[in-house]
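Bug #77: duplicate submission created two jobs. Keeping one. Sequence:
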Amino acid sequence: MSEERGFTSMAGPQATGEAPTIGIGMLGYAFMGKAHANAFRTIPYMMYPPVAIPRLVGVAGRNETAVTEAARRYGYEHAYTRWQDLVENPDVQVFDNGGPNDAHAEPSIAAAQAGKHVFCEKPLARTAEEAKTMLDAVQKAGVKHMVAYNYRFVPAIVLARNLISSGQLGRIFHFRAVYLQDWIIDPEFPMTWRFTKAVAGSGSLGDLGSHILDIGRFLVGEPTKVMGMTKTFIDERPDGAGGRTKVDVDDAVTAMMEFDNGALGTIEATRFANGHRNGNMWEINGEKGSIRFNLERLNELDVYWADGRKETLGFTNVLVSEPYHPYWSNWWPAGHMIGWEHTFVHEFHHFFNAIVNDQDVAPYGADFVDGYKNAVICDAILESAQTGRMVDIKYDL
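Kept job's structure:
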């Protein structure tokens, strides 16, 4: 599938004839469960005419009371305390894995082996080795597969990719990105699974850094080498029982990289940046101009053209809300903003199109190949941080 064709399908895919129903089985019901369920409920009437109608078959989670309430709240037909029940349910066609990172591999592989299409939250896995087992499983099963790098589906970021791929920025020199949050600065913030390597795989790197690494690959190209540093600022946290538990993941990470086109990149991710609630910001510098983006202003793209136009010298703020901008025909009149939750609507609509019309998820969506490559880069950054050396990126594909 060409990128041009891929963009056309993203902008407004439709089913041939009446839209089919796709049965959804969702693992996890908290933060991501809410975001995913909201997308499923919204798709039929906003991405209209829809490519598919999600049927909310079942939701699974470990807490019976909580998962039962989630099923009632979101509109799922069944509540399960075992993910295996989702895999075994013949009405489930898409396995939506929104569980913790240590629950990504086994359920997703089982779902693929059962013939379910698999959608998995990011990062795909705790390590590249684990991610490769998931990639092998979905490829062997011949099912569609997608990783939830939802920021690929922000209209302004799609517009940025179009500007770059069309050559309007010319040769790319730099990619610099930061993902800044501040929610765990308090040393008394309690222990969660995100602070344990055995469950999460890494800390700020996998949680936040993987997002901006994916954007770097999406917009600029493949990194070929990286050098990283990590830091854990608070190494023990309250365990909820009067004691303290060791934190063995990174609180912050910085890395330098070189891309296959010769561009240089830097990334920084931290959950210790006071004043930043969800500051995903990046800038790309090319020979003909620059573009920059801030997720907290996700309907805007700052663009600078180096063509000598003195009357517009400096960055121009572009409001990405016109009918001809990516996805906007599905939403509101120009200037009426959409939000973070709408990226999931676009993302799942794209995935359903891949299923219904037998299209590739890539290059606009992140498939398990992208998820595996992202994990390889994350592992290389951690290796570099441990050894103090530059590490070459090598994929086992």
